[in-house]
Amino acid sequence: MSKSNTKVRKLGAIRQLLKTPVKDEIPKLSSFHAASSSGDGKGGMVGITGSALAVPPQKEKNAAREKETKPSSVSIKSDSGKSDSASSTKSQELSDKKEIQDLKARERDLLKQISSLQKLVDDLQEQIRNKEVEVVSLQDQILRQEESHKAALLEERTSHDATRSERDHLLKELEKLKAEVKAIREENVKKMEELKKELEEKHSLEIAEKDKEIKIRDEKLNRLKMQMADALKGNSWERQQQLEELTKELGRLQEEADGLRMKLKSFKTLKNNTAGGCGNCQESLGKVEKFQLAVKERDATIKDLKALVTKSEKQLTQQDELLKSWADSKGHKIPGYPGK
């Protein structure tokens, strides 16, 4: 909205003019209502109404002037017929002229005041018209803003309703998902308990089986030791035969030990896979580790026995060679020893 460029006329100069005393006091005139030819207030004012001052229109001023001059002329005519009032008539004429001049001066002052006041009234009316235009424009702007705000409010309410509906839908979906997650968690816990129980039983059976196999191998090793001891006590050929059998037995034991190693390796892989998920399998895993340690000890024993068998075989071979050389030199034949 563009503001009016009309400047408000300051009333200080006019008020000062109204306060300036004149030679004679302005006669008090009767107040009257201003007649307007058109309702717009432009140039239609024939007079100014006020509580302190009322200025008559031009016609009334002329009539008043004639009334003021006519009594003087009548008085002059009446006085001219009298011979004894010639001097007084002249004095009266001078007085009337002076009064007329004063009245004309007052009239000019009043006309100036009227012109100033009329200009002030025109300025004020122009300001009023500008203010009315501004008020109408502001009212239109207020109405447009009101309509815009109503539309924005309606749109915001619609958006809020849609958001609220979407929120309620999402809350229902969330509750449904929570129920599904809870059911899945309970099912997984149940399955984990079953798997844990199954693994514990399987580990127990495998450990018992491995313990049994280790016990059997210990018995076989003890028999091998006894057979080797008995073989060293017999003749060289029988000992050689027994050593060959022992070597075969050791080879078979070695193959079984390799098989056990493979099983232990699979147990170790199973241990690594279940270490993070099954926290109650430590006892079973400890048994597996003990079993692994026992197998390593058995492997060391087998290795020692193989070294011993190799050493004994070498010694027996040397003894057989010496015995054969001695028998050949003496012409004896060793029974049970195949000749070349």
UniProtKB/TrEMBL annotation:
Chain coiled-coil ranges: 100-209, 236-263
Compositional bias, Basic and acidic residues, is annotated for 58-70
Q: Which UniProt keywords apply?
A: Coiled coil
Locate the compositionally biased regions of type Low complexity: 71-91
Keyword Coiled coil, does the record have it? yes
Residue ranges for the region (Disordered) are 20-100
Name this polypeptide is given: Uncharacterized protein
Q: Give the source species.
A: Mizuhopecten yessoensis (Japanese scallop)
